[in-house]
Amino acid sequence: MKETSLVHIIADGCVLMMHRISKKNDINHGKWIGVGGKFEWGETPEECMRREVREETGLWVDQYRYCGIVTFVSDDDDMEYMHLFTVTAFHDRDQASGKDVRLRECDEGTLEWIPKEMLSRIPHWAGDRIFLPLILDMEIPFFSMKLVYQKGTLIHASMNEHNCFVTQRLVLRPWLAEDAAALYQWVKNPKIGPSAGWPAHRDIAESREAIRNVLTRPEIYAIVLRDYGTPIGSVGLQNFRIADADGSMLTFFDERKSENPLVCSRPSGDFREFSDCQEFVAGSSRPEERRGSQESRTGSDRPEGRGEFQESVAGSDRPEGRRGSQESRTGSDRPEERGECQAFREDGMQGLRVEAALGYWLAEPYWHQGIMTEAAEAVLSHARRDLGIRRVWADYYEGNDPSRKVMERLGFHFHHIEKDRYIELLGERRTAVVQVKTM
User: Fold this and answer.
1) Higher pLDDT, 289 or 432
2) Burial class (CB in 10 A: 0-12, 13-18, 19+), 336
3) Which of 79, 149, 228, 335 has a CA 20 to 30 Å removed from the CA of 190?
4) How far apart are CA 166 and CA 381, in angstroms?
5) What's the sign of the alpha-carbon dihedral 16, 22, 25, 29?
């Protein structure tokens, strides 16, 4: 294991990058990266950063920010802890910060000032697409990231123990408190929330609360364009449940209560012994209601429930939610013993499966560009590959054609119609079309 510094020097809207072309055996050969290098014995991260900048560029650091640590794992090299820094003030012997400072010739590669908006268009590590906008534009608090590569391909990424994904045009990452302004910018639009069952946000404080109480769930992702750091939408999995092969719902469970924050959790043991479970008969128009606590579940096999995300599966990750509405599920249908969804396929409980609901929304300027389909496909692939989910639900309200078309492109098909669903946040009733996708 080795430790290194990775430094991005910023001036006049550009970032100083190094094109690593000088050494053929360099793991970074052909890529553009920041400057930096290995720790020397006894150095602190800051001391290493200053020395490497001075040796590779000839510049002296005046102002910097220590951004985070990346655990870099590759089958081509030793595991590495990369300490991320940005530098915003510097000087050479004659001049203060600016792109026109004299740079030293470097034997590691060619140094060049690259405009920020061009960074995603030059060859670099795929994982850099995740952290570069965060450290160059948003100045978020110190974070920990893990990037795992196999034969040069990014196969796993996480940030602060939350999964991240990189697609052709997008980065899917956790929602952050610093995203509140961007969230409010989009969801104050009355075309976004009401069509999916939740009201437009009235102020940035409401958006901030939505991030804190709803959007920071383990399987909810901010959708970010590669060229920018701020979200333009949200996509995620919610309302996880255990079901029989015939579709009978055995129990809901809370993905927030997990031993491994990267995956949702599930109950273990003999599920049928929990009398609080509600059975839903596949293909039926109404569920069997045992205790009257789920009167509003008028659709069969409906995964939403009346918890924090009840309306969000209508083509949205409803940002508001209702705080504490899932906390009541602490009785017999949510036992204390928890495990990982992956184990569900291996623990010998034949005929049982994990199911979930898909929710999403997208800012209006980005409609009709295939962005939501691209984002949702990444989440659904993760659901099957990493969480062992075999069936995913989604629904939309009649008239929400954009959401319907997204579901069609994703391979969902019609399951049933739920008439007169009461939408508490809007105080009205609508007809919902429930769709399902078998993975």
Assistant:
1) 432
2) exposed
3) 228
4) 12
5) positive
Cα–Cα distance measured from residue 136 to residue 187, given in angstroms and rounded to the nearest whole number: 25
Task: Identify the bridge partners of residue 112 per DSSP, sorted by sequence position.
Answer: 17
- The Cα–Cα gap between 322 and 53 comes to 49
Alpha carbon of residue 227 to chain centroid: 17
Closest residue by Cα to residue 256 from 212, 193, 311, 197? 212
CA distance 248 to 263: 23
Q: Which of 430, 418, 271, 259 is CA-nearest to residue 341?
A: 259
Joined tokens for residue 204: 């940035």
What would the two tokens of residue 309 be? Answer: 């995300």
User: Judging by DSSP bridges, how do beta strands 231-244 and 352-362 pair with one another?
Assistant: antiparallel
Q: Which amino acid is at 22?
A: S
CB of 220 closer than 8 Å to CB of 212: no
Label residue 94 left, alpha or beta by phi (over 0 means left) and psi (-120 to 50 means alpha).
alpha
Among 88-97, 159-168, 409-418, name the one with the lowest average pLDDT. Answer: 88-97
Start-end ranges of CATH 3.90.79.10 in the chain? 2-160
Exposed / middle / buried, residue 363 (Cβ in 10 Å: 0-12, 13-18, 19+) = buried
What pLDDT digit, counting tens, does each position of 109-122 carry? 889 898 988 887 88
CATH 3.40.630.30 segments of the chain: 236-438
What's domain 2-160's architecture?
A: Alpha-Beta Complex (3.90)
- Cα–Cα distances (Å) from 294 to 255, 284, 302, 373, 436, in that order, read 20, 16, 11, 32, 21
DSSP state, 342? G
Residue that has been written with the tokens 């940005």 in this structure: 86
Between the alpha carbon of residue 14 and those of residues 9, 379, 405, the distances in Å are 8, 33, 40
Report the first-to-last Cα separation within the chain, whole angstroms: 39
Please state the pTM of the whole predicted model: 0.75
Which of 410, 383, 378 shows the shortest CA–CA distance to 394?
410
The domain over range 236-438 is classified in CATH as 3.40.630.30: yes
Residue 293 to residue 350: CA distance in whole angstroms: 29
Confidence of residue 10 (pLDDT cuts 50, 70, 90): very high
